[in-house]
Amino acid sequence: MSQDVNNSATNRSSGGLKSTLRVAVPIVALMLVIFGVTLFSQYTQKPQEKDEDGPGSKSSSGTPPLVFFNSTRMWDPPNLSWPGYANLPLLAPSYDPSKENKFDFSPQDRVFAGFFEPDKEKTRSAAFWFENRNAKPVTMQLKGVSCTACSGGRLAAIPPDVTRAYLQRTALAALPIGTFNAFGVGLADPAADFSKLEWTKHKFSEHPDATYKIPAAPATPDKWAPQWGIMELLFSVAENPKVPLQASFATGIDGTQQMGGHEFSIFFGPAEPFAVSRSAIEVGEVNQLTGDREYKFLVYSATRGRNSEFGDLAPPKCEVQAPAGIDPGKFVEVTSVERLPDSDLQAVAEEVAKGGKFSRVQSAYRVTVAMRPKIGESRLDIGLMERTIHITAGGAKPQSVKVTATVRGAVWLATGKTDVTVPTFKGRAGTVHTETLVAETAGTELVLVEDQCLPRFVKYALTKKEDRGGQGYYELKLEIPPGRQYGAIDSNAIVVIEVKGPKPQRIRIPIKGSGEQG
Questions:
Q1: What is the DSSP string of 24-38?
Q2: Which residues have C-beta within 8 Å of that of residue 4, sequence separation ≥ 6?
Q3: How far apart are CA 512 and CA 493, in angstroms?
Q4: Where in the chain is the domain with CATH 2.60.40.10?
Q5: Which CATH architecture has domain 411-516?
Q6: pLDDT digits (tens, 9 = 90+) for 67-126
Q7: Which domain of life is it from (predicted)?
């Protein structure tokens, strides 16, 4: 089948059957039909040729010993915002931005979790369904794996009579035979009906040439009783896994020279229990006339939700922290934490994707942050304001969002900068550096807050200069003693000055620079 026909079949099957199936098929069967419809558009069974020497069938020319539905497993997100698919997650087109044909997806990828919290002791699996269309058994043998994380595999052949009973029980046999290829419909709930399969299981570290046997196709062709099988690759998720995990196998039809090869890839992502949609809130410049501002960010989880194996995502707790020696106050405050309904999770995933992250979203909270330059008579210190919102949820690894702003006020550096930059100097000799401070109004009184200036070994001095042009002027001097500073000055270095008056305000000026050896 050509790609164009394949694409059109997908669109016709996916779109035209929705309303009909909703009425004609019980809801459980509907889920299975969805799998069948999509699989049919991507996997069309080739006709089997009659063996002239006796009953049975033989593989068509060019057919490999085993026919797998696909060889890659990765999470495929549904685009529920596509018109008409809001309540059809298994049938909705793909939201994967890399796909040109949004209806070209595997239902197995749709139900694959894709994101896992790291746990090297927990074994996970990815299933790959196949069919043996040959009149003889097939042998499948491991040829290699990409890393030890792909720890093993197991394979089970599904007895044709089990397949027939399964299809009849789900009422698929009542549908028009020409419409669907039922291959793979059991993917919706294999455990419920195939729990008694006989599995051949191997640990690859102990069996580097692990071998599996697949029975021959039924002697009498029956479209409702093919020789299906399931191969599951077992893997674990570490903190920094090598992705994709890959495994290669060789296949051969017993008693013949017909051989084949298959390589399987598993794409997944290790995920923390929760993440934040942004790592920083940059407020920009604020002054005494700036009003209150409001910002929002998302706390979401790719692994935790109401029906997740990892449990639900607990409501996040947010604590605003300031640099050492500074009272955080209420200038930056988390005002609300709101759990978003499941119906909004698609929109959350889209919002997260706009920020450069492509993630599954199983639960989410929207956090609102208020930024206030002034509270009553209290005002933010002039200079660079930094706050960190420390976020925890249910004992998981904490996350943080940094809030920054440049606060303008009645005093500023004559250079127009927000920090004191000491030119590079010889550490053994030390250095003296001066800056000019300008006060908006002549007569303004400034004083050093020496007990908050860092580092302590630096000598700080503030000297009043002559007012001019209606403005006040001060000289700030920093003296770094010989042999005390080598390398970059500590990032916490700061000089703190207070503007005296009925409404005192402080200016905090970071210090930068470096002392060289020699």
A1: HS-HHHHHHHHHHHH
A2: none
A3: 7
A4: 49-75+115-164+187-270, 275-407, 411-516
A5: Sandwich (2.60)
A6: 998 999 999 988 888 999 888 888 899 988 888 999 988 888 988 999 999 998 999 999
A7: Bacteria
